[in-house]
Design goal:
about 350 residues; Alpha-Beta Plaits; 2 domains; 4-stranded antiparallel sheet
Length: about 350
């Protein structure tokens, strides 16, 4: 297990160095993302997998099973990154998945075909997995290992967690109108300050999300007109990102904020069968079994929404759970445990007809 984790970290370091500069810099559909895919393709071929690339650029390596008619079992994630991103986001799922499938290859024959996939451009809207779902050429089961990107596993003292659902996401843009005026000569009582109205709404966003268990909401962008030090703002435009782990709480949050979303992704529950196997394998290692919802979107959620039996295994984040940052971190020990659980889970799923 230690040797597997060591090789995974060496490969993560190699991917991390692509593009240069601070952090990971492999934007979707960029030459840097392509370089990462080319590297992963080489690793897949060295592991004895059959490699193919689809029309969108998704990379898939297959380890053939004895019964080609059975639904395939895939694992993987994505290799693109945000600018100045972290070492683990996405890349961990591809590299750990390859390690687990390579170990499965060494363990002997299996009925179902195993696959390792690297989806294109996840960070800008899961382009690769969405395109794959449109083709209908899908696996029967998909497992994604991913760094948690939060502090909950660390707070629970658990190295791994099984994801129950992918949160719904609603994004909206709101505009607040007021009247411009001189900052020094307009009495406070007579002002129509668009920023004051926007500020009241921002506080409402925080309060509404705090009253719904598991919900979060963020005002991430704010634009002012005229944007001058001595002018009362006449026009404010802001964005809201609202998320909740299931449909009931998601709808309650959207209603509480009276949003009219321009983007909406419904919450999706992950499949019970692969989740059960993950839980059993974590328990077999004597580890605490923790289940939690994912507040971030993932390729697994896209496949789950298209009917694929999907599950996710989170790996404990260090450094306070920071992600999308060069400070993103996880330990070799935790990654090694994730590979062990994934390997055992893939072996069990590949040995069963469905």
């Amino acid at each position: 297990m230690a040797a597997s984790a060591k090789r995974i970290f060496e490969r993560l370091d190699t991917l991390y160095a692509i593009g240069g500069g601070e952090g990971a810099n492999r934007p979707g559909f960029s030459p840097e993302e392509q370089q990462a895919h080319d590297l992963a393709s080489t690793w897949m071929r060295e592991a004895g997998l059959e490699v193919e690339v689809d029309a969108t650029g998704n990379l898939l390596g297959r380890l053939r099973g004895s019964r080609a008619e059975l639904p395939e079992v895939w694992t993987g994630s994505h290799l693109d990154s945000v600018l100045r991103g972290g070492r683990f986001d996405g890349a961990l799922g591809v590299v750990a998945g390859l390690e687990a499938v390579e170990r499965a290859a060494a363990s002997g024959a299996r009925e179902r075909t195993l696959g390792v996939v690297a989806f294109r451009a996840e960070e800008t809207g899961c382009h690769g997995s969405r395109a794959l779902c449109q083709t209908g050429l899908l696996p029967g089961t998909f497992l994604e290992v991913h760094v948690e990107q939060g502090p909950r596993l660390a707070d629970a003292g658990a190295p791994l967690g099984v994801v129950t659902s992918i949160a719904g996401i609603a994004r909206a843009e709101l505009v607040f109108e007021g009247r411009a005026g001189h900052a020094g000569t307009t009495p406070m009582a007579g002002r129509e300050d668009a920023l004051a109205a926007a500020a009241a709404f921002i506080l409402r966003v925080r309060e509404a999300a705090g009253q719904i268990d598991g919900a979060v909401a963020t005002v991430g962008r704010l634009e002012l007109e005229a944007g001058a030090e001595n002018v009362i703002p006449a026009h404010v435009r802001l964005t809201v990102d609202a998320r909740a782990p299931d449909l009931e709480r998601f709808e309650a949050l959207v209603a509480a904020l009276e949003l009219e979303p321009h983007y909406r992704f419904e919450p999706v529950a992950l499949a019970e069968t692969p989740r059960l196997v993950l839980r059993e394998e974590i328990d077999a290692l004597g580890l605490p079994v923790i289940e939690l919802a994912s507040g971030a979107g993932h390729d697994a959620g896209v496949l789950a929404a298209s009917g694929v039996d999907s599950a996710m295994l989170f790996v404990r984040s260090l450094a306070g759970g920071v992600s999308h940052s060069p400070a993103e971190d996880s330990s070799e020990e935790d990654v090694g445990l994730a590979v062990e659980v994934l390997t055992r889970t893939l072996a069990r799923l590949a040995a069963t007809p469905r």
